[in-house]
Write a structure and sequence with these properties.
single chain, 353 residues, mainly alpha
């Protein structure tokens, strides 16, 4: 990491990829990552069988045996890793969509890509009767990508505009929601109940068999998204400005959308659709980091939100473990009301001038 002399205080992270961050954004990101690590260690320590911090580190380093290793490495660590990596993926995905649409409501939850992933998984679960992780994951990814292609094609009129993407996405999301309900209502009750439970979004019962390959893919996608930070920031200034700076706007926009859809689909394939992390994380990170829709702070905030929500889901009521999606849905609903209120207030003050 080294300082950049470019007229304003920035730092360049040069490994594994080159990224420039403002000083405030960098400090906020490091602070969030520090909290994520501390909360992650705490989540490995507490539970039905408490484990000391020393035993946690011994287990992670491979020096623990017996129940301590089983509890920490086999039971709790996959869940913590999934929460951190998948939360970061959703946070970065939300930041990309909100930046492209230039609207805080432009998250994959709102414009239908999460619903598309859920539809793809439902078709596999209910249509074939298989519960194979690879099959369900493939269905979720194809469903998300297919939805993105449809939304992008319908919103394209000599170029894709953010507002059109949101409007078309909301319409497609409503149609997919109805289709998903029809699938559940017309299916065998036991299969429909299992699929509906999966649709809430949960990390209960995840194992390394699911988490490891999905995390590797998510990390690769995150690095790919970071590589596209420059064209994303250029397009925040407007398509004309971005073109003047040498950015191939439509090509970059398509690549960014494809990356963001994959960043949503991969976590959805493992834990089901988890609402509001992609919506709220970029906005909260922006308020902390004081930057535009920078991907790294949004990813760190997404990891923090998901890990915190999953920790609360396990500890809110003793003896009961909620799906993490229930917690994010409850808190996210309040956030959405506040966000809509602030938008209405902003629009009202703007029209009064």
């Amino acid at each position: 990491m080294r300082p950049v002399q470019a007229g304003r205080r920035e730092w360049a992270v040069t490994w594994p990829i080159k990224i420039r961050l403002g000083v405030k954004a960098l400090l906020a990101t490091l602070a969030m990552l520090g909290i994520v690590i501390a909360l992650g260690v705490l989540s490995l320590m507490v539970g039905t069988m408490p484990v000391s911090v020393a035993d946690v580190f011994r287990a992670i380093m491979g020096h623990a045996e017996g129940m301590v290793r089983t509890v920490v490495v086999e039971w709790r660590l996959p869940r913590a890793v999934a929460a951190m990596v998948f939360g970061a993926a959703l946070g970065a995905s939300g930041a990309i969509f909100q930046s492209l649409t230039k609207n805080p409501l432009g998250s994959p939850d709102i414009i239908g890509f999460s619903s598309g992933s859920y539809t793809g998984a439902l078709l596999v679960l209910l249509g074939t009767g298989t519960v194979s992780f690879a099959a369900v994951a493939s269905g979720a990814i194809l469903g998300g990508i297919g939805t993105a292609v449809i939304v992008y094609a319908l919103a394209f009129r000599g170029g894709s505009k953010g507002f059109r993407l949101i409007i078309v996405g909301i319409g497609i999301s409503a149609m997919l929601g109805s289709f998903n309900s029809m699938l559940l209502l017309r299916s065998d009750p036991d299969a429909a109940f299992a699929a509906a439970a999966w649709g809430v979004g949960s990390l209960n019962g995840v194992s390394w068999e699911q988490v490891l390959p999905a995390s590797v893919v998510a990390v690769v996608l995150l690095l790919g998204a970071m590589l596209q930070t420059r064209p994303l920031r250029e397009m925040e200034l407007g398509d004309d400005t971005a073109k003047a700076h040498g950015v191939a706007v439509e090509k970059s926009r398509f690549l960014l959308i494809a990356t963001a859809v994959a960043l949503t689909a991969v976590p959805t394939a493992v834990m089901g659709p988890v609402s509001f992390v992609a919506l709220a994380a970029p906005q909260m990170a922006k308020r902390l980091a004081g930057a535009s829709h920078s991907l790294m702070p949004a990813a760190a905030m997404g990891a923090l939100m998901m890990l915190g929500a999953d920790f609360a889901a396990q500890r809110l009521i003793r003896g009961t473990v909620f799906p993490v999606g229930v917690v994010t849905l409850s808190l996210g609903g309040l956030y959405l009301v506040w966000l809509l209120f602030m938008q209405a207030r902003k629009n009202g003050s703007g029209s009064g001038k």
